[in-house]
Design brief:
The protein is mainly β. The protein has one domain: Distorted Sandwich (Deoxyuridine 5'-Triphosphate Nucleotidohydrolase, Chain A), CATH 2.70.40.10. The strands form 4 sheets. A 4-stranded antiparallel beta sheet has the order 2-11-6-8. The protein has a 3-stranded antiparallel beta sheet with strand order 4-9-7. The longest helix is centred in the middle third of the chain and has 7 residues.
């Protein structure tokens, strides 16, 4: 699918790193290092504005390598870029480790994935269908 994009400050366009990749890495659109202290949260711009077709979203997700090696994640876990948003995409970075982490200009800091979405039309009812699970909630099946 073709997506219209505006690149800011000459930032590199995201690309699939392997043929089987679901996501494309996005890069920090910063001009100097950003030090993220332990427990800190900062919005890191990625230098991209996009025009997503109606019926789709782009999800912004943490990079697994940064999470495992450095404790870098996203405060909103997975971010959603709606089809009607036209501003610069940003990553709400959080340092979950006990050490400061330095984000470098142009560093790959998150990944984006395009997804098809459906909108909900609510149908109000008095009862719901019966299932084997029923109202069994969090952890009801054990470990």
């Amino acid at each position: 699918m073709q997506i219209k994009v505006i690149r800011m400050n000459g930032i590199e366009l995201p690309k699939y790193e392997t043929i089987g990749s679901a996501g494309m890495d996005v890069r920090a659109n910063i001009t100097e290092d950003v030090i993220l202290a332990s427990g800190a949260i900062k919005l890191i711009p990625v230098g991209l504005k996009v025009e997503i077709p109606v019926g789709y979203e782009i999800q912004v997700r943490p990079r697994s390598g940064l999470a495992l090696k450095h404790g870098l994640g996203m405060a909103n876990s997975i971010g959603t870029i709606d089809s009607d948003y036209r501003g610069e995409i940003g990553v709400i970075a959080i340092n979950l480790s006990d050490k400061a982490y330095t984000i470098k200009p142009g560093e790959r800091i998150a990944q984006i994935v395009l997804n098809k979405v459906e909108q909900i039309e609510w149908i109000e009812v008095e009862t719901l269908g019966i299932t084997e699970r029923g109202v069994g909630g969090y952890g009801h099946t054990g470990k």
